[in-house]
């Protein structure tokens, strides 16, 4: 997922560049192809809905645009609206088709051709066609469709050169059966063939746009009503798809990995597998990385070499008096010095843990395991007012809550988007945080980890149930197709991890620098004590030392900063646990809040922000009381 939202605005006035869009169903390999055809990397994951915003990059003399996956060019969902707009403006389309799913994917192909959009078909996943025991005659498909069809295996690059070479041949048949419906449209309307097709399918935005244009031209004709032949047009198109598939596809399907997939989705086996995976995450993060890598980085690299050297250098370079005192404090103080503690937290604590977690989660994403495990929880999701599609943002959230808020676009209704956003803000810890949390809990033992996860699930469930009961409206059921189980590709996992870690550093490091400078300044001026003092009733109510107040101040900016700050507090096991629970449930990072404002509205943002304070302290207080921390 990339956040270059303005990347696909299409050619502007005076801009003669052409654009070519990659269009197709979710999870068909559009983003992998985009990465093969252009120098840009966009995120690739084995579940539908990875791409929610468009990205563009140069390809020869044209601009290639990666779009969100869709099952049709219309306006039923946010992804469809984004993709429809791009298709209407594009000079050509590369229609990416999952060759093992022709009966599903050719619908979009025929729709594009009906619209008269110049198209080249990338017949992707040809490796899996073979593995599944199917045979597809690409030449016959090319003859049936009347446009270039290029078999590809995006992940190995097979066929990609041919695809690039044949882009100029993009075309559409002169006329298709849908033309017989155009007669139902008013005479002489000013609409392109693409628009006419959308009009007979009853696409409202197109009707409004064309109607408005007519109104301007005629000076007052009635606004155009959508024609509403959707049923008939779709039925006819599906019949064509079926007859094409019959002529080009041979062999009977061997479903690979079906057994394993089944095991993941059945509660008896799925739940233990999920638990085993969670334990593996804990072990990798907590034991291998936190207790080895982070420990080494903190004590040896930073403690023995880096910090003394930097402190000495600062002492040498700055004069010992006057204006230099505050500067020196800012740079090397013991609690948040810019060059000392801040650098150690960012590079020595957060980065190794974040990278490790990205590696684990990236592997699971590539394997297609996560959505299957989500099916096990489907009943649970249902109870908290969500359908299966909400799983994707919740999974993305474990990586980065900020990005996940953007992913909530794949969730059907407004109501579910709000519930998902609230759950993300209130109860889903992000990777950086999970890293530090797992690290700290590993020192206490696995029982604490189990307790931590159970508690989070409890909060997630409770918040969901409460919102489900209180928000008006109903959930809409929508079963999303499961991705195929695959052996994860190390190159993709590595690249994705590097990409995400880079993004983490670019985002977190400057923010941490500014936060540390601000907090140090407050500290120098003596104001930090006042703030920590003001928080004293809260920290005392949790049975935690006053210094936890400083951690909370960091947490206002990013929860992972707070978690990192906890590594330096001297706490008992129970206190550590209470602190981690509070920090986890505390307010989302300021970037997430900005995203909630952009994607939702001020009310949702306030609900999430204030709700986080309340949840964090109510749950933290309860845990504290239960563990006997408050005496
Ligand atoms: N075996 C195989 N896997 C592929 C091929 N192309 C893509 N994949 C895998 O399919 C999954 C989806 O790829 P993406 O490029 O993210 O799919 P997308 O079409 O961009 O999906 P959305 O962004 O969700 O619409 C990833 O796990 C890829 O590694 C292929 O030709 N063969
Ligand atoms: Mg994609």
UniProtKB/TrEMBL annotation:
Species of provenance: Halorubrum tropicale
Domain FeoB-type G: 17-173
Region (Disordered): 1-22
Pfam families, A to Z: FeoB_N, Gate
One cellular-component annotation, GO: plasma membrane
Residue stretches spanning the membrane: 263-285, 336-361, 390-411, 418-441, 447-467, 538-557, 577-597, 606-630
Highest taxon in the source lineage: Archaea
Stored InterPro entries: Fe2_transport_prot-B, FeoB_GTPase, G_FEOB_dom, Gate_dom, GTP-bd, P-loop_NTPase, Small_GTP-bd
Gene Ontology MF terms in the entry: ferrous iron transmembrane transporter activity; GTP binding; metal ion binding
Protein name: Ferrous iron transport protein B
PROSITE patterns attached to this UniProt entry: G_FEOB (PS51711)
Keywords of this entry: GTP-binding, Magnesium, Membrane, Metal-binding, Nucleotide-binding, Transmembrane, Transmembrane helix
Entry annotated with the keyword Transmembrane: yes
Gene3D superfamilies: P-loop containing nucleotide triphosphate hydrolases (3.40.50.300)
Annotated residues for binding of Mg(2+): 38
Binding site for GTP: 24-31, 49-53, 66-69, 124-127
């Amino acid at each position: 997922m990339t956040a270059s939202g303005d990347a696909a605005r299409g050619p502007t006035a005076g801009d003669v560049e052409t654009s070519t869009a990659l269009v197709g169903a979710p999870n068909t390999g559009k983003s992998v192809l985009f990465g093969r055809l252009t120098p840009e990397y966009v995120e690739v994951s084995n579940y539908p809905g990875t791409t929610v915003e468009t990205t563009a990059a140069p390809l020869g003399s044209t601009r290639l645009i990666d779009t969100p996956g869709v099952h049709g060019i219309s306006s039923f969902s946010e992804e469809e609206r984004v993709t429809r707009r791009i298709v209407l403006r594009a000079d050509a389309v590369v229609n990416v088709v999952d060759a093992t799913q022709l009966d599903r994917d050719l619908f979009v192909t025929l729709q594009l051709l009906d619209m008269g959009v110049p198209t080249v078909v990338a017949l992707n996943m040809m490796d899996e066609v073979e593995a599944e025991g199917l045979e597809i005659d690409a030449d016959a498909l090319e003859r049936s469709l009347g446009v270039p069809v290029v078999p590809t295996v995006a992940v190995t690059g097979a066929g990609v050169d041919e695809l690039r070479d044949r882009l100029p041949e993009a075309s559409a048949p002169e006329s298709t059966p849908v033309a017989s419906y155009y007669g139902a449209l008013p005479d002489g309307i000013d609409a392109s063939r693409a628009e006419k097709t959308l009009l007979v399918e009853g696409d409202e935005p197109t009707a409004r746009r064309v109607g408005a244009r007519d109104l301007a031209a005629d000076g007052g004709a009635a606004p155009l009503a959508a024609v509403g032949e959707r049923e008939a047009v779709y039925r006819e198109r599906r019949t064509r798809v079926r007859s094409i598939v019959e002529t080009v596809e041979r062999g009977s399907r061997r479903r690979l990995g079906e057994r394993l997939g089944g095991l993941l989705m059945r509660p008896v086996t799925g739940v233990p597998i999920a638990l085993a995976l969670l334990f593996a995450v804990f072990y990798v993060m907590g034991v291998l990385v936190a207790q080895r890598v982070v420990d080494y980085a903190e004590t040896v690299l930073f403690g023995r070499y880096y910090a003394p050297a930097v402190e000495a250098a600062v002492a040498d370079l700055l004069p010992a008096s006057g204006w230099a005192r505050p500067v020196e404090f800012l740079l090397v103080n013991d609690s948040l010095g810019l060059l000392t503690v801040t650098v150690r937290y960012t590079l020595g604590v957060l980065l190794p843990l974040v990278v490790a977690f990205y590696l684990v989660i990236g592997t699971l994403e590539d394997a297609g395991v996560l959505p299957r495990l989500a099916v096990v929880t489907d009943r649970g999701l249902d109870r908290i007012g969500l359908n299966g599609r909400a799983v994707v943002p919740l999974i993305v959230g474990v990586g980065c809550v900020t990005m996940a808020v953007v992913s909530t676009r794949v969730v059907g209704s407004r109501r579910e988007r709000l519930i998902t956003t609230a759950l993300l803000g209130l109860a889903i810890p992000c990777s950086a945080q999970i890293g530090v949390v797992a690290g700290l809990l590993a020192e206490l033992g696995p029982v604490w980890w189990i307790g931590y996860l159970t508690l989070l699930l409890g909060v997630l469930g409770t918040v969901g149930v409460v919102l489900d009961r209180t928000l008006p409206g109903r959930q809409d059921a929508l079963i999303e197709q499961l991705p195929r189980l695959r052996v994860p590709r190390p190159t993709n996992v590595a690249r994705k991890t590097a990409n995400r870690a880079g993004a983490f550093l670019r985002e977190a490091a400057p923010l941490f620098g500014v936060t540390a400078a601000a907090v140090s300044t407050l500290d120098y001026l003596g104001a930090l004590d006042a703030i920590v003092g003001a928080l004293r009733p809260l920290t005392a109510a949790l049975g935690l030392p006053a210094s936890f107040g400083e951690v909370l101040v960091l947490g206002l900016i990013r929860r992972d900063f707070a978690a990192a700050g906890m590594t330096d507090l001297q706490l008992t096991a129970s206190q550590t646990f209470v602190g981690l629970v509070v920090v986890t449930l505390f307010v989302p990072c300021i970037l997430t809040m900005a995203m909630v404002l952009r994607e939702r509205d001020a009310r949702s943002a306030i609900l999430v922000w204030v709700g986080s304070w309340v949840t964090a302290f109510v749950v933290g207080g309860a845990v504290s009381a239960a563990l006997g921390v408050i005496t």
